[in-house]
């Protein structure tokens, strides 16, 4: 009798402590390697660090240098253009594809795979492939010109004013399938009886989508926004592979700026300051989103 | 049993890491491509002939960026390599971190001050003491031309900027791309610096890009430089964006383009394609830069060693790098010229001979200037800011006046 009760107590103890014990290494790792290094970067951004870290307090000189740097503002503006258009088009294209696939069509599984497949590629592959396709001398432009349309030009990739939009094209191509999958899952999760009831009331299919289905996808919108906005802000590999930040530095983004200043130009302080600015941007986007999300969840 | 021995060995290795590297030299470099790797192998041979074991620490890629990251990690962890491939003012930056070794004794014994042009030896010293040894000199202000293309267009290889534009127009009319260029920031800067030296002369170049004199940078000469560069820009094809320099050289080799502004490493591409200097391709000074010489010097900076045996090995390394035998064989393989003025040049080709002759002449005439596009002239922060302005000028319709103002502002970045 007493044996089984002690076993029960032991079991209860394990129930209480085992999850914490198992989680503690990951907790410690993320405390050190994520938050610890954020704090370290933050500290470096207030020092005179050049080639190597130095730890004397220097105030906000690095932020001043950053804000006087025209290239930083180019990068920030590009992030605005890229981030805004990338998120907008991913949402639109993804939602449209999800709605169309939702019509109980034939070979849906195959189609879904086709649209999802770009997600399996890394951004470097996407960037390199699109670089070849958009190159005026051997890609799309050459194909159309060879077809006989001799005055066709599509030179966005080498045009400093348009290069950032090619990044949007490649980014949307890669990510919209993933957005579609999320929306499709959301649509499938909606109770069929609601749709049936609306149909009985005589609502047309577009009205059902517009007034009932899409509004009920609200939580999915939040998740998609969360994922897309952080992909946009930290985007580095796609731009590096597609345009290399060029021509010149016309398609520069903050992540590339940060890498170059911190690691190739020996201005660790400015690099750290720009990394902190990126962090603030992410926080500025995500905190309101998460706040709204939790509030709406509570209301329901 | 085996396991025990293995673990004992691991333990011993971890306990006595210093003893193991007693007579070793470990050299961090990124000379990994064909001719360069051959050059490094020579150094390895010479070191082992003196009983010093060579530990190769090659980190390829990124134009040395990857190697620099590796170096920082090693220095921060208190275990720096014997020497690392560092050049230009970066030597001063590492010196300021207090990690470089004083090799003045070796330099005095070898009489380095006599062997090197003063502009060069200044780069190798930190606070008056030698901390680095030069391995080679690249000349940057070259113009590479395809004589066949020039003949077809009825043009002559230009010596001045007015002649240059005449020739470029003729090439264009003959359906040949006048200038092969790659739209990468460092290539834009390479082109800019040749234009600046040609238009403004060595005095202007020194004041503006070495002393970073604000009035000179903001002055009318800089406007003229940008105006010329803007005109040069119109002879570059649209496909240049992001093109690698060797692809641009290939355009000159196969006659698609007439000329290219590039340092003497371009010669390797020509010779690898079986072309003969003077016959199949022409190497000449960039327009208006006769007798002037922009140099790009690779050097090995020496890091402080704790172990006395390692210090001795380091001294041997430094002396070997500066020996005429090494300077000759290394540069024959790499396509550059020796940093030592007294190295025999008999085995070198015509372009290298001209380069070496011009270097001595330019050194005497005070026209030997460091290349800032190749990180030889100014702190890396300033250089980066200037290259940003230049590449923006190349890729937008910024006016020469605006570019000058921005360049002057970039010159104040430290």
Automatic annotation (TrEMBL), chain A:
Membrane topology of this protein: Multi-pass membrane protein
PROSITE patterns: ABC_TM1
Keywords on record: Cell membrane, Membrane, Transmembrane, Transmembrane helix, Transport
Keyword set includes Cell inner membrane: no
CDD domains: TM_PBP2 (cd06261)
Chief subcellular location: membrane
Keyword presence, Amino-acid biosynthesis: no
Compartments it resides in: Cell membrane
Pfam family, any one: BPD_transp_1
Organism domain of life: Bacteria
Transmembrane regions listed in the UniProt entry: 21-43, 79-101, 113-133, 162-187, 220-242, 268-291
Entry's family note: Belongs to the binding-protein-dependent transport system permease family.
Protein name: Sugar ABC transporter permease
Species name: Vogesella margarita
From TrEMBL, chain B:
UniProt keyword Plastid, yes or no: no
Chief location category: periplasm
Domain of life: Bacteria
Keyword Protease among record annotations: no
Record keywords, A-Z: Signal, Transport
Cited InterPro entries: Bact_solute-bd_prot1, SBP
Signal peptide limits: 1-22
Subcellular location: Periplasm
Residue ranges of the TM segments: none
Homology family: Belongs to the bacterial solute-binding protein 1 family.
Functional note: Part of a binding-protein-dependent transport system for a sugar.
Protein name: Probable sugar-binding periplasmic protein
Organism for this UniProt entry: Vogesella margarita
């Amino acid at each position: 009798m007493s044996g089984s009760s002690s076993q029960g107590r032991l079991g209860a103890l394990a129930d209480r402590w085992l999850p914490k014990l198992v989680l503690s290494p990951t907790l410690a790792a993320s405390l050190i390697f994520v938050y610890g290094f954020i704090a370290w970067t933050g500290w470096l951004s207030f020092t005179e660090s050049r080639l190597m870290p130095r730890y004397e307090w220097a105030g906000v000189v690095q932020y001043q240098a950053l804000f006087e740097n025209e290239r930083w503002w180019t990068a920030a503006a590009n992030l605005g253009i890229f981030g805004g258009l990338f998120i907008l088009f991913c949402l639109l294209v993804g939602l449209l594809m999800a709605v169309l696939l939702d019509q109980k069509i034939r070979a849906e599984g195959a189609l879904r795979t086709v649209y999802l497949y770009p997600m399996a590629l890394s951004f470097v592959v996407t960037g390199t492939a699109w670089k070849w396709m958009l190159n005026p001398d051997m890609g799309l432009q050459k194909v159309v010109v060879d077809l006989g349309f001799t005055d066709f030009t599509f030179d966005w990739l080498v045009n400093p004013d348009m290069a950032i939009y090619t990044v949007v094209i490649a980014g949307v191509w890669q990510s919209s399938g993933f957005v579609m999958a999320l929306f499709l899952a959301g649509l499938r999760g909606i109770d069929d009886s609601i749709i049936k009831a609306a149909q009985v009331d005589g609502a047309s299919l577009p009205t059902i989508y517009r007034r009932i289905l899409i509004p009920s996808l609200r939580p999915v919108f939040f998740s998609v926004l969360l994922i897309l906005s952080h992909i946009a802000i930290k985007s580095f590999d796609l731009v590096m592979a597609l345009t290399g930040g060029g021509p010149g530095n016309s398609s520069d983004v903050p992540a590339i700026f940060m890498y170059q200043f911190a690691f190739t130009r020996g201005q660790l302080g400015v690099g750290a300051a720009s990394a902190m600015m990126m962090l603030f941007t992410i926080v500025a986007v995500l905190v309101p989103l998460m706040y709204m999300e939790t509030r709406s969840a509570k209301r329901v | 049993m085996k396991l025990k021995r293995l673990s004992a060995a691991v333990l011993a290795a971890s306990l006595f890491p210093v003893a193991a590297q007693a007579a070793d030299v470990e050299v961090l470099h990124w000379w990994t491509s064909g001719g360069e790797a051959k050059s490094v192998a020579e150094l390895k041979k010479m070191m082992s002939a003196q009983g010093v074991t060579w530990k190769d620490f090659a980190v390829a890629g990124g134009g040395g960026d990857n190697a620099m990251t590796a170096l920082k990690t090693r220095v921060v962890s208190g275990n720096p390599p014997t020497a690392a491939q560092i050049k230009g003012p970066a030597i001063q930056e590492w010196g300021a971190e207090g990690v470089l070794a004083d090799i003045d004794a070796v330099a005095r014994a070898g009489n380095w001050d006599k062997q090197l042009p003063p502009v060069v030896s200044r780069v190798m010293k930190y606070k008056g003491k030698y901390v680095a040894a030069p391995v080679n000199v690249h000349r940057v202000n070259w113009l590479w031309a395809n004589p066949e293309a020039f003949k077809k267009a009825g043009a002559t290889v230009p010596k001045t900027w007015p002649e240059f534009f005449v020739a470029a127009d003729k090439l264009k009319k003959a359906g040949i791309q006048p200038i092969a260029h790659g739209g990468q920031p460092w290539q834009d800067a390479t082109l800019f610096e040749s234009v600046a030296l040609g238009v403004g002369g060595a005095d202007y170049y020194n004041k503006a890009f070495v002393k970073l004199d604000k009035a000179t940078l903001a002055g009318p000469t800089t406007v003229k430089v940008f105006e010329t560069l803007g005109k040069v820009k119109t002879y570059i094809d649209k496909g240049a964006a992001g093109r690698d320099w060797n692809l641009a050289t290939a355009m000159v080799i196969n006659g698609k383009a007439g000329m290219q502004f590039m340092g003497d490493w371009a010669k390797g591409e020509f010779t690898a394609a079986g072309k003969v200097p003077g016959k199949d391709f022409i190497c000449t000074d960039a327009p208006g830069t006769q007798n002037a010489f922009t140099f790009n010097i690779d050097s090995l900076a020496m890091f402080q060693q704790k172990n006395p045996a390692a210090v001795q090995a380091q001294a041997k390394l430094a002396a070997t790098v500066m020996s005429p035998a090494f300077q000759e064989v290394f540069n024959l393989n790499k396509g550059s010229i020796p940093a030592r003025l007294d190295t025999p040049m008999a085995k070198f080709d015509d372009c290298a001979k001209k380069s070496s002759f011009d270097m001595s002449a330019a050194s005497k005439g005070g026209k030997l200037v460091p290349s800032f596009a190749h990180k030889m002239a100014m702190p890396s922060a300033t250089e980066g800011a200037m290259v940003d302005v230049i590449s923006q000028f190349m890729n937008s319709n910024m006016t020469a006046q605006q570019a000058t103002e921005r360049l002057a502002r970039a010159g104040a970045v430290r």
